[in-house]
Amino acid sequence: MGVRTVWVLAEVTDGVVSLTTAELISQASTLGDRVECFSFNVDPSAIASTLGSYGAHKIWSVGELGGRLAGPVVAHAMASVAVNEGRPGAVLVGQTYDGRDILARLSVKWDLPVLTNVVNVTGELPDLVSEHAIFGGEKIVQAHFTHSSTGLFAIRAKSFEIRDHQAVEPEIVNVPMSEEVVADQAKITRSHVEERVGPKLDEAAVVVSGGRGLGQAENYQMIEELAKLLHGAPGASRAIVDAGWVPYAYQVGQTGKTVKPSLYLAVGISGATQHMVGMKAAKNIIAINKDKEAPIFQIADLGIVGDAHKVVPQLIDALRARG
Ligand SMILES: Cc1cc2nc3c(=O)[nH]c(=O)nc-3n(C[C@H](O)[C@H](O)[C@H](O)COP(=O)(O)OP(=O)(O)OC[C@H]3O[C@@H](n4cnc5c(N)ncnc54)[C@H](O)[C@@H]3O)c2cc1C
After folding, report:
1. pTM of the entire predicted model
2. Theoretical Cys-Cys bridge with 51: which of 12, 32, 56, 247, CB 3.0 to 4.6 Å?
3. Which residues of 153-162 are buried (b: 16+ CB within 10 A; e: fewer)?
4. Is-contact 33 5, C-beta < 8 A?
5. Which residues pair with 38 in a beta bridge?
6. Dist. CA 314–CA 100, nearest whole Å
């Protein structure tokens, strides 16, 4: 293992490699000479060509965890690979539940600090510079490790573009794990999957979000209807998540999801900094708000000053009429 090797945590749900994983591998290939992924709970041969298409040279497969918590097992696997192969120059994980758990445990094992909430990593190993959004995204600060030979980075979704890569056929290596290591760990007894129709919020090309301006929970139906007609995903401001109108999984913003769709339609959302940090990178922003002074209009490409209860039904009718 050279110091110019980057490890990336590959996260896979129902056989599908997450978009964040693709983003991380793609960026990792600009930071060093080799990208090696760690996968778990998936047959590595089923994802090899996908990971290779983003630039992964090798997959360390931790195998099936039998319902055990990923954090301790995958961190153990990474540390044991490093004993034989040496540590990489950097480890990139998505800022997901498993990603944070694994990286925190690795940080303890290696006695190294972690940089979290990363929105960009540039440079070339061993001189990497990371960027972090602070004050609700108002300011970007740069950071770099001064005393650490391996940089540990937890990275927010949508931090990198996926570049075109020359496809690589990654080598697959199974990480030998003793049964006790896996069996010793906490077992997940129940997990709740939020119900969803249409594309995932943080991967959708179109996002239609509703806020407190909708007036009441029942009116969120028109957001769902509009999202469906535009083949997009419905989203929400925190105000209506906190009010219990929609589940947390719908929340866009600093403490919710970061989205970068081609079109973001904000309905009855004022445009608080904490909301905008999660959607301002959208290619096109349309805002519907009855207050022409609403801050959301400052970043909107198209602003409609009007009552959502009148504008949205007309939009829905027009889209339905188009078939
Ligand atoms: C630490 C922290 C983290 C936070 N994280 C997030 C986050 O991740 N995501 C997030 O969204 N917020 C977050 N917030 C909350 C944020 O500050 C705002 O309170 C929230 O975004 C406001 O939601 P809103 O725009 O729906 O409601 P409001 O600010 O109440 O805005 C409602 C808007 O609807 C308009 N309106 C009213 N009636 C109509 C109508 N009939 N037609 C059209 N428009 C109408 C009003 O003019 C107004 O602009 C966070 C806050 C803190 C302190």
Report:
1. 0.84
2. 56
3. bbbbbbbbee
4. yes
5. 9, 60
6. 44
Q: Which atom of ligand 1 is nearest to the CA of 210?
A: 26
For residue 268 and ligand 1, the question of a CB distance below 6 A is answered with yes
CATH 3.40.50.1220 fits 201-322, yes or no: yes
**Phi and psi at residue 166, to the nearest 5°:** -80, 125
**pLDDT tens digit string along 12-69?**
998 999 999 999 999 999 999 999 999 999 999 999 999 999 999 999 999 999 899 9
First to last CA, the chain: 56
Q: DSSP labels for 104-170?
A: HHHHHHHT--EEEEEEEEEEETTEEEEEEEETTTTEEEEE--SS-SSEEEEE-TT-SPPPP------
Residue type, 186: A
- Residue span(s) of the chain under CATH 3.40.50.620 come to 5-183
